[in-house]
Design goal:
Helices cover 26% and strands 33% of the residues. By secondary structure, it is an alpha/beta fold. It has one domain (27-158). The chain has a 6-stranded mixed sheet. It has a two-stranded antiparallel ribbon with strand order 3-4. The longest helix has 17 residues, at 2-18. It is globular and about 60 Å long.
Length: 168
Amino acid sequence: MVRRFLALLLGALVVAGCTDFAAEPEPPVGSARDAAILTAVIASVAELAPEPAVVPIVYVVGVQGTMEIEVQAAVAANLMDMCDLRFADDPAEAFEEIDSEKRLRAGAVLLVIGPVPSEEQQQVEVAVIRQTAADFSEDLIVTVALRDLDWTVTEVSVSPVSVSPVSG
């Protein structure tokens, strides 16, 4: 009986020793990091609400071309209840021609997003062009910081220099 108790006690100690109870959760890295940063940027700059009365259409174009599919999928999943998110290869996809005039599609916002800095920093800046009408766009710098394992927008400022031309 004592041997059985000691064997169970030893087994419990071995299992407990293999479990790292003090392990701290870590912030996302790689594609998950980029997706978390872009989710924060898009939600802030497109002014998305958690439960919108009217679901906005948000077109996202990367300045350096197509974003990684893993990043696109994660961002789309993160924002699916807040907007109709559409990744595009060309800003022209956000426009339609009405009466020989190019207009941003009804209810849409176009975001042309610069690259997410690849350095593992606690704070990054992402350049964004926000276009809300065919003839109105803003060049923005979005500062995103890692806070309690979540990437959070801490500042959105108007950029003194254009990120890239946007045309429909």
